[in-house]
Design a protein that fits this description.
Blueprint (H helix, E strand, L loop, with lengths): L6 H11 L6 E8 L2 E8 L3 E8 L3 E5 L10 H10 L3 E7 L5 E7 L4 E7 L5 E6 L4 E4 L3 E2 L4 E2 L19 H11 L3 H8 L3 H12 L12 H15 L6 E5 L2 E6 L10 E4 L3 H62 L1 H17 L2 H8 L5 E5 L4 E4 L3
Antiparallel strand pairs: 1-2, 2-3, 3-4, 5-6, 6-7, 7-8, 8-9, 10-11, 12-13, 12-14, 15-16
Helix pairs in contact: 4-5, 5-6
């Protein structure tokens, strides 16, 4: 299942997200790397846009428990509350979504970078960054407040490409077809494989040896997929969600399917179910961890109890021996104290070195060790 939406999927999502145009932003909520933008539109009612960094964005109908808003979330609330959506669109065939807002006093753009670590940037009408979720810096690109926002270097825009340009670009790749389509043309692995399935072209074929008719077939198939009628589909394998796509894929024709009225709906329902399952797994994992910890504590307590019982048993035996030999040991101690007054330690040690009961004399600590049973 996808962790990030592809450029092709964002292209389809944006068509549906156009419904946000002319809606008013009421509030922004956040939780970890997730944001929800709460809109209201006349005749549509409440519309919630959920953004899960690094790379998911879709309309949701599920309310969540949110955390106390962080600084960035509070900044968005302050500057975007009660503003209206003027437009929403993508940057070429990149995973970048732009929402234009308008208030009585100003125009602002909220830019969602749905790749790499993901980011959200608020810029003014001159393109100056007012605030940013994650400050980043590269050799030729700086993302921080008061800097001019600069888009990342653009890749190939297959949407506006004609057949001749497509042929030139793909022939220059000199790599296998599926990787060329996935990386160079930004289709992603899933849809690149689907292109190969639909055209019956080996995905591992080197692009430099493709014939003109094969290239034309590839080009037409890609264009067809980009402009395909929406048919949002979720695929299941062994009862588990495998993938969600904006139109049906031939490569999954033998899998169990579920249809949706919109791509947003398919993402919302499927990802929400996955989130619930993940939360349940985390709860179970946490409980198991606590149980294991309790087991460790109980085992340690058992060990401590056994050690204490052994000490008690050992001391009881020593006590019995002392009691049995009390008179003899008292006489021995009295005699030792008497000779201690009359002789030096060296003389005492020499005199008692072969004693049957006394085994050690410690003059520094002032004690003797005896062996009795």
């Amino acid at each position: 299942m996808k962790n990030q939406i592809s450029s092709l999927e964002l292209n389809y999502l944006t068509r549906e997200l156009k419904t946000l145009v002319n809606s008013k932003l009421n509030k922004v909520y956040s939780k970890k790397n997730s944001f929800v933008f709460d809109f209201h539109k006349t005749s549509k009612g409440r519309l919630m846009l959920k953004v899960e960094l690094p790379g998911k964005i879709y309309l949701t109908k599920y309310k969540e428990e949110y955390e106390e808003p962080g600084n960035f979330c509070m900044f968005l609330r302050k500057h975007l509350a009660n503003s209206f959506v003027r437009d929403i669109y993508t940057k070429d065939f990149e995973r970048i979504l732009i929402i234009e807002f308008k208030t009585k006093e100003k125009k602002l753009k909220l830019i969602f970078e749905l790749f790499s670590k993901g980011n959200i940037v608020l810029v003014d009408d001159k393109g100056i960054i007012k605030n940013i979720y994650r400050k980043e810096e590269w050799k030729d690109r700086i993302l921080k407040p008061k800097e001019k926002y600069k888009f990342p270097p653009s890749g190939i825009n297959i949407i506006n490409m004609d057949m001749n340009e497509f042929r030139i670009k793909i022939m220059k790749s000199n790599k296998d077809l599926v990787r060329t389509l996935a990386v160079k043309f930004s289709l992603g692995g899933l849809y690149s494989e689907e292109v190969c399935v639909r055209t019956k072209t080996k995905k591992g074929i080197n692009t430099s040896i493709l014939k003109k008719n094969e290239l034309l077939k590839l080009y037409k198939t890609i264009k067809s997929m980009l402009n395909s009628k929406e048919d949002p589909t979720a695929y299941f394998e062994d009862g588990k969600l495998k993938e969600i796509t904006p139109f049906e894929l031939r490569m999954f024709q033998n899998l169990e399917k579920k249809k949706y009225s919109s791509f947003n709906e398919s993402l919302d329902e499927s990802l929400s179910i996955m989130a619930e399952e993940k939360n349940e797994e985390e709860i179970i994992k946490t409980k198991k961890g606590k149980v294991e910890k309790l087991k460790e504590i109980i085992e340690k307590q058992k060990e401590d109890i056994n050690k204490r019982l052994n000490i008690i048993d050992e001391n009881s035996k020593k006590g019995e021996i002392l009691y049995k030999n009390y008179n003899m040991l008292k006489q021995l101690l009295d005699d030792f104290r008497k000779i201690q007054k009359e002789h030096s330690w060296e003389e005492i040690k020499e005199k008692l070195k072969n004693h049957k009961i006394i085994k050690e004399i410690n003059e520094k600590e002032g004690y003797i060790i005896v062996d009795v049973k």
